[in-house]
C-alpha cells in the first residue's frame, strides 16, 4: 500500500458519507447557533400563522396577505433546499431529496396547503440540523485525534534546543520533550526512562513506563520528567499520521449494506416519483368523482414519503458511529465492510508469541543442587553478561544482590552453550548436549520441562538449572473464555515456536487445537485449509510482521500491537493498538452492536414508509403523516445510531 502524506490540520468528512448535506450547512464553532436561526424564524412564523388561522384572530389574514406570510415563513428553510435541488438538477442528478422536497412543498403551496408546505420543509430542515449534529458527534472520537497533533518540536541544533515545526525535523535528530508536552515524532528514548500517556493512540488511560532505547510514538504525552528522543520517522510517517490516514480512508470503504441501500435508493426513488405522477392522473380514467386537487395532494404525500433520507443518512451514520466507538477503544477498522465481516466470524486462529504471550523471556524458576541460589546465579550471570541472546538478557534481569563475579576465557561451544572460568572454577552453561559431552550427569527431572532450560555445571559437577519462559499476557485466559461466550466456536493456535511449548501454552489457555514449529507458509496452509469449508469465517490474529501472508489470506486479519508496524497497517483489516488480546472480543461486540443498529434503522424506515405510502395512496394520510414517515423516522434512526457513542462493551 503506497503511503500518502496526510494533512493533519484538516480531517474532512467524506463527501459521500455526508450525502451532500454539508453544502450550505457550515457547522463551525463560531457559527453553531447561526445554523438554527432560519429554522427558528420559520417555526415562529408557522406557529403564528396556524394560530391566526385556527382562532380567526385577524380577519384580514387571508388572500394575498396569508400567501405572503407563509411564503416568508417558507423561504428561510426552503430556499437552501431548492438551491441544492437546482444544483443537482443541473448536474443531471434529478431524483435527490432536495428535488423531491422542493416539488412536494411547492405543490402544497399551489393547492393552497400553505401551513403543510412550510411544515414539511421546516421539519426537513430540523432533521438536517439533527443529522449534522449527530454526524459531528459520531466523528468526535476520531476528530479528537487532531488534539494530539503536536504543533512544535524542540530539536537540538547548533549546540542548543530550538522550537521548530515538526515537519522540518529529520531522521536521526535529537528532540527534547518537557513534562506535559506531546511527543511530536516517532523515535527511540535516549533518557533512562519515561512515563507516557498513550491514551489518544491506544485507548488506554493508564500511563506506560518505558526504559531507555524503547520506541516512543508521536501523540504520546510525557508525564514525569524532561526526556530526550532520537527521531526515527519523519512527521508524515509518524504513528499519529498513519492512524489519521487509516481512519480517513475507513469512512470511504463502504459495507455491502451501505452500497446496497444507496443503489436501492437510486432505483426506488424514481419509481415512487412515477407512481406519484400516475396517482395524480390515472384515477381520472377509473374514478367517477375525480377531483384533481385531491389526487395531487395524495401524490405530494407520496413524494414526501419517498425521500430516502432515513435510509441514506442513518445507515452510514451507524457505521461511522461504530468506527468512532472502535477508535475510542483503541481498535482501528479499515472500513465499514470489516465491521460487517467481523460479525460473521466463527473461527479464530491466533499466533502465540506477541499475541497471547508477551514475547519477552522471563525467569520462571531456578533450581540449584548444593548451591546458594544467589551465588549460583552470580556464576551464571558472569557467563551470560556479554551475550546478546534473549535468554541471556532474561537471566541478567535477576536482581537479587550485586554481581561482582567476572568470567574469563569464555568460549562458545557451537550449538551447545558456553564454557569459561569464573573465580578459578570452570563453568559450563548450555543445553543437555553440552553436559553429556563433558560427562556431567543431568537429573531426570529436566526431561519433563518443555520450556527453555539453561543447565549449569561448576567444576564438572551439575550445579542447577534455570527455566526461561515467555509470559502469558494478563488478559490472555479471560480472552479465550470471552471468545467462547460471544459465540466463537473454534479457536486454534499456530506458532513458529517448538511444538512442546506451543502445546503447553494452549493447555494453560484451554485451547484445544494448537500446532507449533510452523513456518509462515505452514500457517498460511492451515488457514487456507480452514477456509475451504464455506461455513468457516476465519479471523487471524498475529503481530503483523512475520504473519503478513496469513493476515492477508484470512477473512478478517487482525494485527496485535500494530501501532508501530508498517506491515500491520498495510496488511491487516483491523488493528488493535495495544497488546491486549481482549480487545478482539470488544471489536466483535462493537461490530455486532453496529450491525444490529443498522438493521433496526432499515426495518424502521422501510416499515413506516410502506405503511404511510399505502395510507397516502388511499387518502387516509395527510402531509403531517408524510412528514413523520420521512423526517420523523430519519430523526429516530439518527438518535438510534447515536446510541453507539454511549455504549460500553
UniProtKB/TrEMBL annotation:
The alphabetized UniProt keywords are: ATP-binding, Cell membrane, Membrane, Metal-binding, Nucleotide-binding, Translocase, Transmembrane, Transmembrane helix
UniProt keyword annotation of Membrane present: yes
Q: Which InterPro entries match?
A: ATPase_P-typ_cyto_dom_N, ATPase_P-typ_P_site, ATPase_P-typ_TM_dom_sf, ATPase_P-typ_transduc_dom_A_sf, ATPase_P-type_domA, Cation_Transport_ATPase_IB, HAD-like_sf, HAD_sf
For bias type Basic and acidic residues, the affected ranges are 7-27
List the lineage, top down.
Bacteria, Pseudomonadati, Bacteroidota, Flavobacteriia, Flavobacteriales
NCBIfam families, A to Z: ATPase-IB2_Cd (TIGR01512), ATPase-IB_hvy (TIGR01525), ATPase_P-type (TIGR01494)
- Localization per Swiss-Prot or TrEMBL: Cell membrane; Membrane
Per the similarity annotation, which family is this? Answer: Belongs to the cation transport ATPase (P-type) (TC 3.A.3) family. Type IB subfamily.
Task: Please write the reaction equations for the catalytic activity of this protein.
Answer: Zn(2+)(in) + ATP + H2O = Zn(2+)(out) + ADP + phosphate + H(+)
Q: Recorded E.C. number(s)?
A: 7.2.2.12
Ranges of residues in domain P-type ATPase A: 149-248
Chief place of localization? membrane
Whichever gene encodes this chain, its name is: cadA
Matching entries from Pfam families are given as: E1-E2_ATPase, Hydrolase
Q: Where is this region: Disordered?
A: 1-27
According to the UniProt record, what class of enzyme is this? translocase
What's this protein's name?
P-type Zn(2+) transporter
Transmembrane segment boundaries: 35-52, 64-82, 94-112, 118-135, 267-287, 299-320, 597-617, 623-642
Amino acid at each position: 500500500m503506497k503511503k500518502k502524506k496526510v494533512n493533519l490540520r484538516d480531517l474532512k468528512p467524506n463527501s459521500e458519507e455526508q450525502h451532500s448535506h454539508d453544502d450550505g450547512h457550515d457547522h463551525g464553532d463560531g457559527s453553531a447557533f447561526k445554523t438554527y436561526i432560519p429554522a427558528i424564524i420559520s417555526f415562529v412564523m408557522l406557529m403564528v400563522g396556524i394560530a391566526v388561522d385556527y382562532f380567526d384572530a385577524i380577519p384580514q389574514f387571508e388572500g394575498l396577505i396569508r400567501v405572503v406570510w407563509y411564503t416568508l415563513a417558507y423561504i428561510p428553510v426552503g430556499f437552501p433546499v431548492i438551491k441544492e435541488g437546482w444544483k443537482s438538477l443541473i448536474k443531471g442528478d434529478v431524483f435527490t431529496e432536495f428535488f423531491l422536497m422542493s416539488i412536494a412543498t411547492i405543490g402544497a403551496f399551489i393547492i393552497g396547503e400553505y401551513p403543510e408546505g412550510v411544515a414539511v420543509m421546516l421539519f426537513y430542515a430540523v432533521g438536517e440540523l439533527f443529522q449534522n449534529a449527530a454526524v459531528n458527534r459520531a466523528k468526535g472520537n476520531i476528530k479528537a485525534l487532531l488534539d494530539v497533533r503536536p504543533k512544535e518540536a524542540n530539536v537540538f541544533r547548533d549546540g542548543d534546543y530550538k522550537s521548530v515545526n515538526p515537519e522540518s525535523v529529520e531522521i536521526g535528530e535529537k528532540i527534547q520533550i518537557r513534562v506535559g508536552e506531546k511527543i511530536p515524532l516517532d523515535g527511540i528514548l535516549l533518557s533512562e526512562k519515561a512515563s507516557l500517556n498513550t491514551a489518544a493512540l491506544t485507548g488506554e488511560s493508564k500511563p506506560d513506563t518505558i526504559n531507555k532505547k524503547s520506541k516512543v510514538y508521536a501523540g504520546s504525552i510525557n508525564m514525569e520528567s524532561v526526556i530526550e528522543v532520537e527521531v526515527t520517522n519523519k512527521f508524515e510517517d509518524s504513528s499519529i499520521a498513519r492512524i489519521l490516514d487509516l481512519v480517513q480512508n475507513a469512512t470511504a470503504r463502504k459495507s455491502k449494506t451501505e452500497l446496497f441501500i444507496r443503489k436501492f435508493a437510486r432505483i426506488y426513488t424514481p419509481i415512487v416519483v412515477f407512481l406519484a405522477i400516475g396517482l395524480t392522473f390515472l384515477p381520472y380514467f377509473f374514478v367517477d368523482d375525480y377531483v384533481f386537487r385531491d389526487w395531487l395532494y395524495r401524490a405530494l404525500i407520496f413524494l414526501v414519503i419517498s425521500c430516502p433520507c432515513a435510509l441514506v443518512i442513518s445507515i452510514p451514520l451507524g457505521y461511522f458511529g461504530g468506527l468512532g466507538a472502535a477508535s475510542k477503544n483503541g481498535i482501528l477498522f479499515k472500513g465499514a465492510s470489516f465491521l460487517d465481516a467481523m460479525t460473521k466470524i466463527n473461527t479464530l486462529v491466533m499466533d502465540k508469541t506477541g499475541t497471547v504471550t508477551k514475547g519477552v523471556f522471563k525467569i520462571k524458576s531456578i533450581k540449584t543442587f548444593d548451591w546458594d541460589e544467589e551465588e549460583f546465579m552470580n556464576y551464571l550471570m558472569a557467563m551470560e553478561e556479554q551475550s546478546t541472546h534473549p535468554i541471556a538478557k532474561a537471566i541478567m534481569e535477576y536482581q537479587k544482590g550485586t554481581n561482582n563475579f567476572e568470567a574469563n576465557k569464555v568460549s562458545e561451544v557451537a550449538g551447545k552453550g558456553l564454557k569459561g572460568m569464573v573465580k578459578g572454577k570452570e563453568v559450563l552453561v548450555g543445553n543437555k548436549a553440552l553436559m553429556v559431552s563433558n560427562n556431567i550427569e543431568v537429573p531426570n527431572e529436566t526431561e519433563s520441562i518443555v520450556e527453555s532450560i539453561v543447565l549449569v555445571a561448576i567444576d564438572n559437577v551439575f550445579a542447577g538449572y534455570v527455566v526461561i519462559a515467555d509470559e502469558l499476557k494478563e488478559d490472555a485466559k479471560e480472552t479465550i473464555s470471552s471468545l467462547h461466550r460471544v459465540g466463537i466456536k473454534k479457536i486454534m493456535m499456530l506458532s513458529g515456536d517448538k511444538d512442546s511449548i506451543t502445546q503447553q501454552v494452549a493447555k494453560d489457555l484451554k485451547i484445544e487445537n494448537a500446532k507449533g514449529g510452523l513456518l509462515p507458509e505452514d500457517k498460511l496452509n492451515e488457514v487456507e485449509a480452514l477456509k475451504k469449508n464455506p461455513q468457516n469465517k476465519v479471523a487471524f490474529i498475529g503481530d503483523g510482521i512475520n504473519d503478513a501472508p496469513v493476515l492477508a489470506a484470512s477473512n478478517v486479519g487482525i494485527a496485535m500491537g500494530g501501532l508501530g508496524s508498517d506491515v500491520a497497517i498495510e496488511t491487516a483489516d483491523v488493528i488493535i493498538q495495544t497488546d491486549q488480546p481482549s480487545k478482539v472480543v470488544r471489536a466483535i461486540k462493537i461490530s455486532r452492536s453496529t450491525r444490529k443498529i443498522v438493521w433496526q434503522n432499515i426495518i424502521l424506515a422501510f416499515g413506516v414508509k410502506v405503511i404511510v405510502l399505502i395510507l397516502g395512496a388511499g387518502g387516509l394520510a395527510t402531509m403531517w403523516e408524510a412528514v413523520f414517515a420521512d423526517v420523523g423516522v430519519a430523526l429516530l434512526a439518527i438518535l438510534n445510531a447515536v446510541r453507539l457513542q454511549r455504549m460500553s462493551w
